[in-house]
Structure formats: structure tokens, C-alpha cells
Design a protein that fits this description.
2 domains; binds zinc ion; Urease, subunit C, domain 1; binds N-(aminocarbonyl)-beta-alanine; nine-stranded mixed β-sheet; eight-stranded parallel β-sheet
């Protein structure tokens, strides 16, 4: 049966307007005021904003960091995602050292297929570059994996500058987007060694092991090398003013530079590492939480339209049994934060309700621009006829408190514990089916793989 979502206000990057949304066979069939309800099931969205389903383009589900596997797998992570309003995630399939990209893609399909409660796509993280892998790039793009990830930090994952240049050139020929983790890995190793030698081993020393210039240097280097290769730049989890300024310099030189930041860099700051005892470990992620000045710079960049996407970098580890592997040494604390469930509420609360960004910018940064950047638009990322009916009915008047007690993330904490949230996903439709309501799942396991086209931002 057709579904008519009535009386809401549809949000696009350009405007907000009163309209009903007609859904048929999982697709959006019409958008407009006063659509006839005959023969339709109806959903009353009065008083609500109607957003295109949110896309999280940066998740690490069912990922083994070499010591321990993330607390969330595809079953738990995508269920949490859809409860919060996220209808598509783009996760990082990661090449094993000595392995092929085809093997990594197969492994990630096995992790996700038949287990996911929201739609999913993959980026391919290249960790072991060689001529045979170069031959696989075109195959990945044909398989709908049109974006790639490179690390400039983490000894088990990172590529050299020479490899970076070669990969950029090869992936560029296939019009793949390359998202890069920008931290100078050698410098991080030196800083960690200095702190350890000085007996500075608690979680609070995570941040000084990765100062802002560690990010800025890598952003600048990546931009110059991408410029030499003649391909667009995509920087994931930008966290600092200094890094932003390097990206601005590259843009001023005429380069295409796409920037992602994450809610943790907008909402939390480095003072969290001063929490008593081992509590600071909850906030250990890379790049680390930053200063209030960095936070202000990122909000200003959002206001100016300089940021293209807000995704989570969801990479959850339990405090007990996982984070505490680093109880005696901060450098052994598994890096990453949970956030897949709470991103829309955190961004709406700290951004839209606080007057730092508009609901239209939220639709752009959490949905449409991300879909365009990653070759999913207009199937995803828009409330437009012919697209997938991934729809979030958002109640801007809802008031609730973020807490691990009520979350669906499979983690023993949330970094947003106690946050007084404004607004909530009242109903979440995935290809026309009600998947979650008021933060609780309604129908699980609806997720399917999204084979993507090449980016339109090339
Ligand atoms: O601390 C983080 N962000 N862990 C996940 C891997 C990454 O760097 O993106
Ligand atoms: Zn990263
Ligand atoms: Zn990440
Ligand atoms: Zn529940």
C-alpha cells in the first residue's frame, strides 16, 4: 500500500516548505501540499520537519584493530543508526596486509549482508599498495565501491608519501574519491615515545601525543601531493583550526577540497581528558578532542559553508574489557568513540537549536552533500520523486537526555552521556518501511547494499 506522510515541513539544503510526501514501492512518488490520501496509509507529521534520511559516511563496524574488535558489528551498529535517524552508513572495508581488495570487499559483505538494519555502502581502505592492488581499483569502482580511504598514521595501516602519490594517480583515473586520515604518523610515534619516557602514561596524555600541527602538517602534505596528482582532496575527521587553515590554503590555490568533521569535535573538547581516574579513556580517539578555539573554528567553517559532511567516525570499544587494555599506557587504549546513534540529535541540539547552523545546513551536511560526494545522489540524500523513500520525521520540540542506559549502541558508555537533547527522530522510514519510532526499533534487518556511482564532485 502507498504511504502518505502528511502535514510536515520538508527540509532541503535550500529551503523548508510545507508538503506531503507520497511513497510507493519504497520510492518517493510525489512531494507537494495537500496530496490526496485515498487508498494510502497515512502518517501525521504535523509539527515536524521531514528530512531526507541521514547518511553517516564514516563508520567502523565489526573492525578488528589488531588487538580487539569494535563493540558494534553491523547488526548492532546499523540498528542503533536507524533508531537515531541514519538510514545509510558508509563503512570502511579494510585491506589486510598481503591481502587483496577483492578479499576485503568479500569480507565486509559477509559482515554486513543480511544483518543490517539500515542501508550500507563501503569505502575501501588501502593498506598494502602494490601493482596487483593497482589492477583492482577499477573492479572496486565497478562493484559500487567508488571511494577509498588512506591512513597517514597508525603503523599497521598507513601508506608512505610515495604510495599516497601513486594511489591518488591510480584512483583518480577511475574518478574515485580518496578520503585520508591526516595525522603525521612518525611524529605521533615520537611524541608517544617522549611521553612514555617521561612516565606520562594516563589517558590525559593522549591529546599531547597528537597536537594540532600533527594534523595540519598531514593536511598540507596531502593537499600538495593530491595537487601534484591532479585529483580532488577529501579529508576525513578534520578537528583543528590549524588543519582547516591548510585546507583553505589548498582551496585558495584552486584545488577541490572536501572536508568532513564529526560531532565529537563540535560538541566535546579536550577538557574531557581531565576526568578522574581512567574515565578520560572514554574520549580517546584520533584525532583527539581539541580546544574550544578549534571547536569555534569548525562551527565557523560550518556557518561559512566550508564543511561538506558531518559523519561520526563511529568506532566503539567498551570501557571495561577494551579501553582498559590501556590502563597502564594511554597508547594502548583502543582509539575511537561511539556516535552512530546520537549524531542527528547532537548536531540538531548543538547546531540547529543553538542557532549555529540552519536545519537546511543539517540536511546538506548529514544527507544531500554526503550523497553527492559519494555518488549516491539522487537515489539517497533528497526528498525528491524517484529517490529511495528514506525519510526522517523529526520532532523539533522533543526533549530527552542522551544516555547509555537507553542507547542501542553495543557499548558500555556514550561520550554524550547526560546531554540535554533537543529534537528527535520521531519516525524513520527506510525505503518506505517504518524502521524506527521515537528512538526505538520497529523493524530490524531491512538494510541492503548500496552500489554507488562515481562522485559528482570530481
Ligand atoms: O580513533 C579513531 N578515529 N578510530 C577509528 C579509526 C580512524 O582513525 O578513523
Ligand atoms: Zn581516521
Ligand atoms: Zn575512522
Ligand atoms: Zn530500546
Amino acid at each position: 500500500m502507498a504511504l502518505l506522510i502528511q502535514n510536515g515541513r520538508v527540509v532541503t539544503p535550500e529551503r523548508t516548505f510545507a508538503a506531503d510526501v507520497l511513497v510507493r514501492d519504497g520510492k518517493i512518488a510525489a512531494v507537494g501540499p495537500g496530496l490526496p490520501a485515498d487508498g494510502c496509509e497515512t502518517y501525521d507529521a504535523a509539527g515536524c520537519l521531514v528530512f531526507p534520511g541521514f547518511i553517516d559516511a564514516h563508520t567502523h563496524l565489526d573492525m578488528d584493530n589488531g588487538v580487539t574488535a569494535t563493540a558494534d558489528n553491523f547488526a548492532t551498529g546499523t540498528l542503533a543508526a536507524v533508531c537515531g535517524g541514519t538510514t545509510t552508513v558508509v563503512d570502511f572495508a579494510t585491506q589486510d596486509k598481503g591481502g587483496t581488495l577483492a578479499r576485503a570487499l568479500e569480507a565486509w559483505h559477509k559482515k554486513a549482508d543480511g544483518k543490517s538494519s539500515c542501508d550500507y555502502a563501503f569505502h575501501m581502505a588501502i593498506t598494502d599498495w602494490n601493482p596487483a592492488v593497482a589492477e583492482e581499483v577499477g573492479e572496486m569502482v565497478k562493484a559500487g565501491v567508488t571511494s577509498f580511504k588512506l591512513y597517514l598514521a597508525y603503523d599497521n595501516l598507513r601508506v608512505t608519501d610515495a604510495e599516497l602519490y601513486e594511489i591518488l594517480k591510480r584512483v583518480g583515473q577511475a574518478h574515485g574519491i580518496i578520503g585520508t586520515h591526516c595525522e603525521n604518523g612518525d611524529l605521533v610515534n615520537e611524541k608517544v615515545a617522549e611521553l612514555r619516557a617521561a612516565g606520562k602514561l594516563g589517558p590525559r596524555y593522549h591529546a599531547p601525543s597528537r597536537p594540532d600541527y600533527v594534523e595540519a602538517e598531514a593536511v598540507a602534505r596531502y593537499c600538495y601531493i593530491a595537487g601534484a596528482a591532479g585529483v580532488p582532496v577529501h579529508i576525513v575527521h578534520l578537528s583543528t583550526r590549524a588543519g582547516l587553515e591548510e585546507a583553505r590554503r589548498a582551496r585558495a590555490r584552486g584545488q577541490k577540497v572536501y572536508l568532513e568533521t564529526c560531532p565529537q569535535y563540535l560538541v566535546l573538547d579536550g577538557s574531557r581528558y581531565d576526568a578522574p581516574g581512567f574515565e578520560g579513556a572514554k574520549y580517546v580517539c584520533s584525532p583527539p578532542l581539541r580546544s574550544l578555539d578549534d571547536q569555534a573554528a569548525l562551527w565557523e567553517a560550518i556557518r561559512n559553508g566550508e564543511i561538506d559532511s558531518i559523519s561520526t567516525d563511529h568506532c566503539s570499544y567498551n570501557l571495561t574489557g577494551q579501553k582498559d587494555l590501556g590502563r597502564d599506557d594511554f597508547s594502548k587504549i583502543p582509539n575511537g568513540l561511539p556516535g552512530i546513534e546520537h549524531r542527528p540529535a547532537a548536531v540538531y541540539t548543538a547546531g540547529v537549536a543553538a542557532g549555529r547552523m540552519t536545519e537546511n545546513q543539517m540536511a546538506a551536511l548529514l544527507s544531500e552533500h554526503t550523497a553527492r560526494l559519494f555518488g549516491m545522489y539522487p537515489r539517497k540524500g533528497a526528498i525528491s520523486v524517484g529517490g529511495d523513500a528514506d525519510i526522517v520525521v523529526w520532532d523539533p520540540a522533543a526533549r530527552w537526555t542522551i544516555s547509555a542506559e537507553t542507547q542501542h549502541q553495543n557499548c558500555d558508555y556514550t561520550p554524550y552521556e547526560g546531554m540535554a537533547a533537543r529534537g528527535r527522530a520521531k519516525a524513520v522510514f527506510l525505503r518506505g518501511e517504518l524502521a524506527a519510532e521515537n528512538g526505538e526499533p520497529v523493524k530490524e534487518g531491512l538494510g541492503t547494499f548500496v552500489a554507488r556511482g562515481v562522485s559528482e564532485y570530481y
